[in-house]
Design brief:
Helix content is 35%, strand content 19%. A hairpin with a 7-residue loop joins strand 11 and strand 12. Helix 6 packs across helix 7 and helix 10 crosses helix 13. The radius of gyration is 39 Å and the shape is elongated.
Length: 761
């Protein structure tokens, strides 16, 4: 048995030695090296041996076979010093080869029945050109399969054969054996046991297991023998093949078998000896089953495993008008609507490319999705009776449904290369395509996920022709759940409900259309509810908070998780964004049952329609110099003393009253710009800020100073004392010194404070 790997560069002489001129090679520059562009099986009568060519997925990134062998050193699996034998990997090779042979054979049969890519070149030579005749490898697999299927039968026959054999036959013993007398009593030193007549079942089974044992040594597969049978030596089986006696022995005993199982076994053994004797006769003989472009064979495997039947999918979706052919497409529940469907689009590769995802592949995959979207939009725009179960666009918000798009690649567990466990894992890498940022429900906002699937699980499912609805649906459900998880990790979802029942939802959508376009989507049974999606990226947090503070006048805003019933979502969001803890020194701390009350209090901020003013401190002259030099002022975020949360009042602060920590009568007043940032410790250090805490996860909310303004006397001490007293009353705790204080203009009296005057500068 010889072993090669697809697309691996071998010295030309090592290829010609075992492949001859019957397999086309791809020669590399210089001509001393060449690659085999095929996967499959080839029997070379010149060397009287089989050659297997495994897919390149079994070559690791370090160019090692099974991630531990030099492919050139394991071509010949016959020698006892072959490296594969150390870990019994030679047994694994035959199993892998057998599975792949059956997969290719299944592909050839499917290709003959259906329209499968013609880019796959097939070299298929059956023995003697006979229709339905089996190759040597198929004959061997039939024998191995029979043993696995009927092992209980063989055990039963073995027990019947052995029963009574150890019982003494006294009549024969007395008449045939001379006893020894002692004290006038006879003692027999030998016995005659009961022996049955010739057991023809035993004869056939001995021949069967002897053949299996011979093949296991040649093709390196595990063999579990049944006890109680004395087997022929491999050299004896070889002699039967070379002399042609194997078929003659079987012909003599043919009439001794009548049960279906033993008749089937006789036929299998006769087919084996007939084939082996013909090959051993030296007559020209050839068997070949090779395919090029094995990635297209793998594509068909994945298609059978996860895709809908092509006849149940509009042809324009997978055979697109621009000439592109979609690898995999199936219809499943939308990530927004459980009862509405959308098409999931996939592309498969059975090996990992040198570059994780090529730009060409990514571009094509996004184009597939855009074509599918446009096709379905055309149906809604032009068809009299568009499909009611598929929904790509919401007419109210003009938002587009989320279109799942993915790559799926085969992988090998090199610790257990023959494992057929159902494994589907997600890669960290993903790609996104968009026209507008922070608009999930825009038609050009597309995401491309990447998955790895156990290669041998796919092969085994394909060979077994697994088209079970349960398995297919479980894989589709897995992809849907993962896509939901992926989207939720990057977007914050909310449900919007109008505050006033008398105000039509259409009017509110129109009122905020400019701000909410691409951010909202109404499910098919949405009623007066909308789903809002906001990008979690720090770049958009300030814009998102501003948006929330604006629409909060007209909408209740509730937390929402994709895949749940949005009609039952009634948990208000108190202007806390992302994972910022609720516990904040400058705000009231409330229990969960008072969240609605806090939400109402924050809503009431809107009635003031006036400036939010930040009272902040500088600790010393160096701190003040940093603030003035960088025109930045920071407040803490998170779960720590003196931290604030990102409420509307924090986000919309228009003025900063900057006072000295130890002497509040020293202060400066600044107008704040609308450019806000969120920085971590590392960024603060880069800006020259002195950090006392080394936690890299610490975050700061950064204001940008616009210009300095002059105002009259401000009773800063009075404001601070009043806010501290309110804080202690509400929380039972003492406010940390230097905690930022946010107030509205009418919450304190100053001799010359005039917002209008301040705006004039």
């Amino acid at each position: 048995m010889k072993l090669y790997f697809e697309e691996y560069p071998y010295p030309v002489d090592l290829l010609h030695e075992n492949l001859g001129n019957e397999v086309n090679l791809s020669y590399l520059q210089g001509g001393s090296l060449a690659k085999v562009p095929y996967v499959g099986y080839y029997f070379n009568s010149n060397i009287n041996d089989t050659v297997f060519i495994l897919p390149k997925v079994f070559i690791s990134e370090s160019q090692q076979a099974f991630d531990r062998y030099n492919p050139i050193e394991i071509i010949d699996l016959s020698p006892y010093d072959n490296p594969l034998k150390a870990k019994a990997d030679d047994e694994v090779v035959f199993e892998l080869s057998a599975w792949l042979y059956q997969a290719i054979n299944h592909f050839v049969e499917r290709k003959q029945r259906s329209n499968i890519s013609s880019e796959v070149q097939i070299q298929n030579i059956k023995p003697m050109g006979e229709k339905g005749s089996k190759t040597i490898i198929e004959t061997i697999l039939s024998l191995v399969g029979f043993q696995k299927k009927h092992c209980n039968l063989f055990t039963y026959i073995s027990l019947v054969k052995s029963s009574g054999n150890n019982k003494v036959h006294w009549n024969k013993t007395i008449s045939k054996v001379q006893p020894v007398f002692k004290d006038d009593r006879p003692y027999y030193m030998d016995f005659r046991n009961k022996r049955k007549v010739i057991n023809f079942d035993e004869e056939l089974i001995i021949l069967f297991y002897s053949v299996l044992n011979y093949l296991s040594l040649t093709y390196h597969f595990k063999l579990q023998l049944v006890q109680g049978f004395a087997l022929m030596r491999p050299s004896r089986i070889k002699s039967l093949i070379e002399s042609g006696k194997g078929t003659r022995i079987l012909q003599k005993i043919r009439r001794n078998y009548f049960t279906d199982e033993l008749v089937e076994l006789w036929n299998l053994l006769y087919a084996f000896f007939d084939k082996a004797e013909m090959v051993g006769s030296g007559k020209p003989y050839q068997e070949k089953l090779l395919v090029s472009n094995f990635n297209l064979v793998f594509e068909d495997m994945i298609d059978q495993l996860i895709s809908d039947d092509r006849y149940n999918v509009p042809k324009e979706l997978w055979e697109q008008q621009d000439g592109k052919i979609v690898d995999h497409i199936y219809k499943d529940s939308s990530v927004i609507d459980e009862d509405k469907f959308i098409y999931y689009i996939g592309d498969s590769k059975y090996y990992k490319e040198e570059t994780s995802l090529s730009e060409n592949s990514i571009y094509k995959q996004f184009t597939y999705a855009k074509n599918v979207i446009q096709y379905n939009i055309n149906l809604f725009n032009h068809e009299d009776n568009p499909p009611k179960d598929v929904r790509y666009r919401d007419p109210l918000t003009e938002g587009y449904n989320i279109t799942p798009n993915f790559f799926i690649r085969g992988f090998i567990d090199f610790n257990d290369p023959n494992s057929q466990e159902q494994k589907l894992t997600k890669n960290a890498e993903f790609e996104r395509n968009m026209h507008f940022f922070n608009r999930l429900f825009d038609r050009d906002s597309l995401f491309l996920q990447s998955y790895n699937i156990n290669f041998m699980f796919v092969v085994a499912s394909y060979v077994n022709n697994t088209e079970e609805v349960a398995l297919k649906k479980s894989l589709q459900a897995m992809l849907r759940r993962d896509f939901i998880s992926f989207i939720e990790s990057r977007f914050e979802f909310s449900v919007l409900e109008p505050r006033e029942d008398s105000v039509p939802i259409q009017d509110l959508v129109e009122k905020y259309f400019k701000r909410l376009n691409g951010k909202i989507y109404q499910p098919s049974e949405g009623g007066n509810l909308l789903i809002l999606a906001l990008d979690k990226d720090n770049r958009y947090q300030f814009d998102n908070l501003q948006l929330l503070s604006q629409i909060e006048t007209d909408f209740h805003i509730y937390d929402y998780r994709l895949g749940t019933d949005f009609h039952e979502t009634k948990k208000p969001i108190p202007f806390q964004y992302l994972d910022t803890p609720v516990s904040v020194a400058a705000e009231k701390r409330v229990s969960t049952d008072k969240v609605e009350e806090l939400h109402t209090q924050q809503s009431q901020y809107r009635q003031y329609r006036q400036a939010s003013i930040l009272f902040g401190v500088y600790k010393d002259p160096e701190h003040l110099d940093w603030i003035l030099k960088n025109k930045k002022y920071n407040v803490r975020l998170g779960e720590r003393a003196g931290a604030v949360k990102r409420t509307r009042q924090v986000v919309s602060a228009e003025y900063l009253i900057l006072y000295e920590l130890k002497n509040e009568t020293n202060y400066l007043v600044f107008r704040l710009s609308d450019k806000h940032f969120i920085w971590n410790n590392q960024k603060m250090k880069e800006m020259g800020y002195v950090i006392s805490e080394e936690d890299e996860k610490r975050q700061y909310y950064i204001y940008t100073l616009a210009d300095r303004i002059e105002l009259g006397d401000i009773d800063i001490a009075g404001v601070l004392n009043r806010k501290k007293a309110e804080f202690e009353k509400d929380t039972g705790e003492t406010m940390e010194e230097g905690t930022p204080i946010y107030v509205f203009e009418n919450e304190f009296q100053v001799g010359r404070w005039d917002t209008n005057a301040a705006k004039k500068g």
